[in-house]
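Working notes for the structural subgroup meeting. M.R. asked for a predicted model of this chain before we commit to crystallization trials. I am recording the input and output together here so anyone reviewing the notebook later can reproduce the run.

Input as submitted:
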Amino acid sequence: MDEGPACLVGQLRRIGREPLDRMCDEVPAGMSGSMDDDVALLAVRLPSH
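Returned structure, recorded in token form:
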């Protein structure tokens, strides 16, 4: 249970500032070895002030 969130955090640290479409493609691809079930990804980026 701890491996999935840790892997996700690592992915987001590496590519979290990429455009959302690229990030949404790369996050599941980078986790492919650790996913055994269906995945849903919701990404929201708030504008900086």
